[in-house]
């Protein structure tokens, strides 16, 4: 499907709420992946992802820059995650939380990647989420974010560097333990 | 091309975005530079790691059709929240305000006639509320007079109508949708044709399925179709459900 986010947002706001389905489909994995990295737990992340989309649906008419739907959506997801964490556990206990949940994770879960992911600056995390978890090509990301293609590839390149450094750092810390 | 220049091109190289001449330059440099080869390998393996994590996250929900499950969960929550908000809005007597807005506009006066019918039918709530879990949404109501009304409606096989959506915002301004619908409603299923001007952009069928229903949508504008299952009706998109809201 080649239609950009704006196409569906406009349809939603034009009285076709079921068009929101396409936006859910497009970003559900990205949002869930983001929330898994924040919350460390798949079940909580999925629940939070649903909540994120519900809030986005009702806030859609407040979205001023329609080309930044994905950043806006991830912003909502970030707030939902914060609320969930606040409700469940003090932030100081996050490390033990992460530890406990890492034990409950399935073997195929890339927990190190999730941890590093949580520490990435927002703009880098967003570009990686869009590229890999929303399966968008660089051209699609450029069109959606209304950004020159060169900016997309440069940001992606910097995001890789940052992510690799974080993974490296974690590995070293792990080795020192 | 030196190492720095080469590394700067890696993302575009991997993504297949480089023009042929630059691609050849990168490859020529790679042939003779072990360090850049390693760098590219690491980048590729990070990409693979991300791809497999993403696939993993997609496949982990997959028992049947994971996407549809998630989508439906989101939509069910939206519908619940919407009904709650609409009821609250009705509670503070917003209907009166809406009426005034409708009657002010000459164009929307005939739309108001349709609204009268909806509210009258809704006033006697012949349709069970969506909040009743696990009940069929087309089931008869419990009250005797409701049964009477429904019996007479049963004799009508199909109602067809045209519907044009007008949104009234909280600040009182209104927006008339570009698209309009042609509805064919029978007592337990319906078809909705969505038009943009004279162009048919989508046809939807809703058929009962256990306690829920199956929606089949054919998108002429996007060139694809999808089938999804819902619990209960389709909230704001379902004319029958819409009656129960008022």
Question: What's the arrangement of secondary structure elements?
Answer:
The complex is a heterodimer of chains A (177) and B (246).
Chain A: H1 5-13, H2 20-39, H3 42-59, H4 69-88, H5 94-104, H6 111-119, H7 122-133, H8 138-145, H9 149-176
Chain B: H1 3-8, H2 10-14, H3 20-32, H4 34-60, H5 66-91, H6 94-104, H7 109-123, H8 144-154, E1 159-168, E2 174-185, E3 190-196, E4 199-209, E5 212-219, E6 224-231, H9 239-245
Antiparallel strand pairs in B: 1-2, 2-3, 3-4, 4-5, 5-6
Tally the beta strands of chain A. 0
Unreliable parts of chain B: 60-64, 93-142, 240-246
Largest inter-chain contact set: A-B, 49 and 46 residues
- What's the assembly state of these chains? heterodimer
Count of alpha and pi helical runs of chain A: 9
Q: Note the total helix count of chain B.
A: 9
Strand order of the largest sheet of chain B: 1-2-3-4-5-6
SSE order of chain B in H/E notation? HHHHHHHHEEEEEEH
Q: Which bin fits the share of residues in helices of chain A?
A: over 70%
- Element order, helices and strands of chain A? HHHHHHHHH
Q: For the CA atoms, what is the radius of gyration of chain A?
A: 17 Å
- What do the pLDDT scores of chain A average to? 84
